Amino acid sequence: QEYTALKLKVKEWPQSAKKIVDGKVPDGANVYFIPATLRPETMYGQTCCFVGPSIDYGVFKVSDSDYFVCSQRAARNMSFQSNVFPKWGEYPQVASFKGKDVIGTVVNAPLSVHTEGVRILPMETVKDTKGTAVVTCVPSDSPDDYATVVELAKKADYYGIQKEWAELEIIPIIDTPSYGNLTAKKLVEELKIQSPKDTKKLEEAKEKAYKEGFYKGTMIFGDFKGKKVEEAKALVRQQLIDSGDAFAYAEPDGKVISRSG
Ligand code: ZZB
């Protein structure tokens, strides 16, 4: 699985998270949350970034000035690729925390229209076993993300967040013949998905959104406006990589992981 790993730079830690990095990351160093995405062409529409509240995360030193936040499993995988850590197989961990400890952190999401920054928010359905366990949220085109931001806004107190953190504007990025220009919203409504826990229906919605978006979608936002998604996907990805805002992250399959221990 070839992902695009995006670098969301921390702009502001909440009080509760300061003790995680204090004394462990040098003052002035950059800390990035690293979501793994299959849809780089949708990054204009990022409205927040999800972590699993009970998942364990690490802060890993990439250079004197740069630190990455992701699961330990992902950092290990990255250490066996040539483009991330300086030494093969080494992924120095300087701190650890649970997702719930960093809710409310403000990060800069590359290409997002929300240039003021977006918040780190909880998503119960994040899997520790896939990607980096950090998931950037694009509610226009990802049904899981749409269902989650609706839920978070509805029950903000329960989730310990401010309602407006989950209510950043959802902008149309891709137009499709079957679902219009807010594919995820349309599918969530059409399939009568009530909550992020409707996993079966969400799986179906995701399949439909992927197919329609990729084969029939046209960009209606950004530098590649007017181009088919099929073509724009690689162009946006390359642009993010060239600007230093992203890197390629290949997920080895399960067998490879267990064979190498
Ligand atoms: C932004 C985005 C925008 C995504 C979109 C999807 C869509 P897949 O298809 O199952 O392989 N993701 C990544 N890691 C995790 C994780 N650990 N737990 C839960 N979700 C995760 O999954 C790849 C997609 O699932 C990724 O691409 C990420 O969300 C999420 F418009 O990034 B995506 C129709 C989907 N649209």
Automatic annotation (TrEMBL):
What range of the full-length protein does this chain span? 312 to 572 of 1168
- What top-level branch of life does the organism fall under? Eukaryota
Which protein family is it in?
Belongs to the class-I aminoacyl-tRNA synthetase family.
Species per Swiss-Prot/TrEMBL record: Westerdykella ornata
Supply the source organism's classification.
Eukaryota, Fungi, Dikarya, Ascomycota, Pezizomycotina
- Protein name, per record: leucine--tRNA ligase
